[in-house]
Design a protein that fits this description.
mainly alpha, 12 helices, about 75% helix, globular
C-alpha cells in the first residue's frame, strides 16, 4: 500500500516580497529589542539612544509623511489645507495648552496619543496583510481586532497603574488606575489572544494560514507586551515601541511611494518619483534626502528655541531649560499634526493597484 504525502498549501501573502517583509516585521522587532536592551543597561546609553532614535527615526518618520502630503504638485494642491492651515493651528493649540497648563499637559497628551497612534498604525498594516491574503474570510474581523487591541490596552493600564512621575525626563500625569482593572484587562487579553492562537492553528491545519499576517500580528503582540509590561522603565519601554513604529513607518511609506510612482505616474512625480524608483542607489538617495530635510527642519527648530529661550517661560528659571521645553513643544506639536494627518491621508482611496 503506497501513501502519498500531500503538502498543505501556504498563503504567504507578502506586501512587497520576502526580503522587504521580513525586514518590516522581524528586522524592526529585533532592532527595537536590541536598542531597548542596550538602553536598559545604563542611563547614559538611554540618553544617547533616545537622541539617536529621535534624529534618525523619529523626526525622520514625521518628515516622511510629507512625501505623501507634498511629494508632487498634485499632492500639494490636494493637501494644501493640511499643510498651510492645520499645521499652524496644531502648533498654536499646543503652545496655548502648554501656556495654560504647563508642559506636563503636553507630555501627558503625547504619551497617550502616541500609544493610540502606534496601535492604529499597526492595525492598518495588519489590514494590508489581510487584504493581500484575500480577506481571510475564515477569520472573525471583530474578534481579531479585539485581540489586536487587547494587549496594548492591558499594557497602557499597567503603565498607568505603575504611576510614573516622569516620562522622557519630563513631568507626566497618569490617571489613577486600580490593580483590579489591570487584572480584568489581562484576563480578557489572555482569552482573546488564546482564541487568536487556536484560530491560527486551525487555519494552518486547513491550509489557510496567512504567513505574512500571522507573523506581523505576533510581532505586534510581542512589542506591546514587552514595551508596556515587561519593561519597568517608562522611557525604555517607549523607546522600544518607538523604534519599532518609526522604522516600520519609514519602510511602509517607502514601499507606498515605490508602488504609486510607476508607469505614467513617474513623469508626474518629478523628484519624488525619481527617488522612489527601484534599486539600491535610488533607495539610498530617497532615505538620504528625507534625512537631510529632517536635519534641516529640526536644526532650525533647535536654533529658534535657543533664541526664544530668554523670552518665553514654560518650566524652570533659566534660558537653557526654556529652550529645551520649546524644542519639546515644537517637536510634539509636529507629532500631533502627523497623527491627525495620518488619520486622514491613509484612509483615502489608494493611488496604486497592488
Amino acid at each position: 500500500m503506497s501513501m502519498a504525502i500531500v503538502a498543505r498549501p501556504i498563503n504567504v501573502a507578502w506586501l512587497e516580497g520576502k526580503v522587504f517583509d521580513l525586514g518590516l516585521v522581524v528586522g524592526t522587532s529585533l532592532a527595537a529589542a536590541l536598542v531597548a536592551g542596550v538602553a536598559g543597561l545604563d542611563s547614559l546609553y538611554l540618553e544617547f539612544l533616545v537622541m539617536a532614535d529621535l534624529w534618525l527615526l523619529g523626526y525622520h518618520h514625521v518628515i516622511a509623511t510629507f512625501t505623501k502630503l507634498a511629494g508632487t504638485a498634485e499632492d500639494r494642491r490636494r493637501n494644501a489645507a493640511l499643510m498651510y492651515l492645520l499645521l499652524p493651528g496644531v502648533l498654536a493649540t499646543t503652545f496655548l495648552i502648554a501656556w495654560q497648563f504647563g508642559v506636563v499637559a503636553i507630555v501627558t497628551i503625547y504619551f497617550f496619543w502616541q500609544w493610540f497612534h502606534y496601535v492604529r498604525q499597526s492595525w492598518g498594516i495588519a489590514q494590508r496583510y489581510r487584504f493581500r491574503a484575500g480577506g481571510m474570510p475564515w477569520d472573525s474581523l471583530r474578534l481579531s481586532e479585539a485581540a489586536f487591541w487587547s494587549i496594548p490596552v492591558w499594557g497602557v493600564l499597567h503603565r498607568a497603574h505603575q504611576h510614573p512621575d516622569t516620562f522622557l525626563w519630563m513631568p507626566v500625569w497618569m490617571p489613577p488606575t486600580p490593580l483590579w482593572l489591570v487584572q480584568v484587562a489581562g484576563v480578557a487579553s489572555i482569552g482573546l489572544v488564546g482564541w487568536w492562537l487556536v484560530s491560527r492553528c486551525l487555519a494552518w491545519q486547513r491550509g489557510e494560514l496567512a504567513i505574512g499576517h500571522t507573523l506581523y500580528t505576533a510581532s505586534h503582540f510581542a512589542m506591546f507586551a514587552c514595551a508596556y509590561m515587561l519593561i519597568d522603565d517608562i522611557t525604555v519601554g517607549w523607546l522600544m515601541v518607538n523604534v519599532w513604529h518609526n522604522a516600520q513607518y519609514l519602510s511602509f511609506v517607502w514601499m507606498h511611494n515605490r508602488q504609486r510612482f510607476t508607469g505614467d505616474a513617474v513623469s508626474r512625480g518629478s523628484v519624488m518619483a525619481w527617488l522612489s524608483q527601484p534599486g539600491p542607489v535610488r533607495a539610498t538617495a530617497y532615505f538620504g534626502a528625507c534625512l537631510l530635510v529632517t536635519t534641516m527642519v529640526y536644526r532650525a527648530i533647535m536654533v529658534g528655541a535657543d533664541l526664544m529661550g530668554n523670552e518665553l517661560q514654560f518650566v524652570g528659571n533659566d534660558a537653557g531649560t526654556h529652550a529645551i521645553a520649546l524644542v519639546i513643544l515644537f517637536s510634539m506639536a509636529i507629532n500631533f499634526h502627523h497623527y491627525v494627518v495620518d488619520s486622514i491621508i491613509w484612509k483615502r482611496k489608494r493611488e496604486f493597484s497592488r
